[in-house]
Amino acid sequence: MSERDDVNRSVPSASEESLESLLRRVIREEAGMSPAVPAEKWRGGELVLRPGKPELHEKTIPIDKLFQKVVSIRNKLRVLEQQINASDLPDDQKLKLQSYITGCYGSLTSFNVLFASDDDRFRGSGS
Fold first, then answer.
1. Helix (H, G, I), strand (E, B) or coil at 122
2. In a domain, 5, yes or no
3. Could you give the CA distance from residue 74 to residue 32 in angstroms, rounded to a whole number?
4. How far is CA 107 from CA 5, 112, 121, in A?
């Protein structure tokens, strides 16, 4: 085998790249790990936590880091929801656990302002 054949074999074709991209997207979605983008106005911003007592120091957190944590919580809730749905639990227990997850989504709706797309936002039981 020539060196040229070896190089050609290590470079994926366009169809292989598109298949790999498709597989990665499907795996992320099935695992509840779909990507989300922060709204443009928040990118590069900071969250400042200022204590009520002036002698205490404030804490500054990059919004991008906060956004990553919020998306991580959302993704983990989605995985938990999938695990519950696929479990052998009785329907009444599944329903009870689902209601807790819905409550978590509802509690996290305050962070919806961070998301660029409405489809990525948290929805509670009212949605």
1. coil
2. no
3. 8
4. 57, 11, 12
